[in-house]
Amino acid sequence: MMPSDNLRPLTYALNGSPDAGETALVAVAPPAFAQAAWERLAANVAREPSLTPFPAETLRERWEQGHAALLLQDHEIAAYVSLAPVFSEATRQELASVLGVSGGHVPPIKVYESLTGWTAPALRKRNVSLHLRQPLLARFDRPECLFIGFTAGLGASPVLAKLGWQVMPWSQIAYVGSIIENSTVDCESGTPRGWHVHGLTPYDGPPIRSFGEPGHDWGSHCYFWISNAEVALALDRRLAAITGGDVCRWRGIWGQVVESVLLDGGWVPIVLDG
After folding, report:
1. pLDDT tens, position by position, 101-155
2. Which of 97, 133, 191, 254 is the 20 to 30 A CA-CA neighbour of 163?
3. Distance, CA of 95 to CA of 167 (rounded, Å)
4. Which of 137, 100, 227 is nearest to 176 (CA)?
């Protein structure tokens, strides 16, 4: 089922020569893709070590629901970006239930995770991902909205910096960061469910507001990029307050919410393995 008109799938084509240095895009009508096209996209994403792998069905559903934008080239998906609503009305309701409080105690802020920024190799370093993300983010951007992105090493850091986002030190947003990085989900088997990232520790230095800051070794850490520091810090304080300032308790509570609400939608948390 297609969403309402304001959330129709975002689909673009190249506007001009594909050999141009800076790639401009033009909106086109969303086509009916064969399942094989989504399978190829899922395989391409899975081959990228810095991207969370997702099933073809999840990638397709995000686009159909208006939470993704893609570039169409020669009847193939040549680039794809998406968002996942992680702190939403559904998760806030479940959080209130787990905490045993009314919904008014849970912050009304909406949090979206930036996901799956994949571009075909021939089109990289031409701002395709940036041009796809801008209309997708604009679709959901509100004063009470926060976008958060995780990068393992360099990843999409150059694009997120161009969007005006910044890296926050982990210790300042441990509650907000735990919304997407959580090792408490479905642990009965002994292995937390999620996308496991090995050998990287969360960056906890000064905020990074520019990708070009000199002397920084991007490959040694993972990073939490946020679109609005004021909103992120306010949400972090609220989450700390409703869980008694106990971040471990918060992570366990949020893990229950993830299991109840988000896993069925194809979303998984990031799990940091030492």
Report:
1. 887 889 999 999 999 999 999 999 889 999 999 999 999 999 999 999 998 877 7
2. 254
3. 26
4. 227
Distance CA 30, CA 63 (A): 10
Using DSSP, state whether 121 is helix, strand or coil: helix
Residues of the chain with pLDDT under 70: 1-6, 17-22, 186-190, 211-215, 274
| pLDDT at residue number 46 | 94
> What are 86-92's contacts with CB under 8 Å, separation 24+?
86/111, 86/112, 86/113, 86/179, 86/180, 86/262, 86/267, 87/111, 87/146, 87/179, 87/235, 90/261, 91/257, 91/261, 91/262
Q: What is the pLDDT of residue 217?
A: 76
**Residue environment code for 246-258, b if the CB has 16+ CB neighbours within 10 A, otherwise e:** ebeebbbbbbebb
Start-to-end C-alpha separation, the chain: 42
User: What pLDDT does 188 receive?
Assistant: 62
Q: Which two tokens stand for residue 100?
A: 């045993």
Give the integer Cα–Cα distance in Å for 157 and 211: 7
This prediction has a pTM of 0.91
Asked if 3 and 14 count as a contact pair (C-beta separation under 8 A), the reply is no
User: What tokens were used for 22?
Assistant: 């800076």
Element (H, E) at 42: helix 35-46
Q: Taking Cα atoms as reference points, which of 64, 94, 92 lies closest to residue 80?
A: 64
Going by the DSSP 8-state scheme, the letter that residue 31 receives in this structure is P
pLDDT at residue 200, as a whole number = 85
